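REQUEST FORM: STRUCTURE PREDICTION
Request ID: SP-0412
Submitted by: Lab K.M.
Chain count: 1
Length (residues): 174
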Amino acid sequence: MRPAVGVALVAGAFGVVGLLAAGGVMDEMLGRWFRLREFVATRRRVDNTPPPWAVDNLRQLVAEVLDPLRDAVGAPVRVTSGFRSEQLNRLVRGEETSQHLRGEAVDFKVDGLAAADVVALILRLGLPFDQLIGYAPERGGHVHVSWSGVGLRRSVLWAPLEGGYVAWASRGVA
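STATUS: Completed
RESULT:
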């Protein structure tokens, strides 16, 4: 039986400044390699606490994509953006329909691998995903992957230096 866990907001002169997780809820393991705190940014002074259903979605994303990827590469997979509350999503100028809002998407980097190599590896491994986007180094050099339990589109895109997105097959990258 899991003990009851509470989350408290710490308020200061500038509004909400962080989260205190009683009982270590942010240390909760979502899978073999990832903890909840890796997916929950608090640096923007907003409440970014994911609701339980979003944590369930993150757990599925970890199980289906991130843990198998981490096992395959044998190197750390560093989350750069995970769950986003509506307020945080607005602050980072995320899309209004972003799957980050539902805990269904994550942006990450793999130590020692370029984004294009990570995208190619995910495709080669046959991991399930809804959307997979590799970003050129000049646009952050990260990978965005989303997973949803319903109707995976398997959309693969590349975000080139020039902006916008192109189909993975026409990305012009070696």
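NOTES: The CA atoms of residues 119 and 134 lie 6 Å apart.
Reviewed by: T.R.
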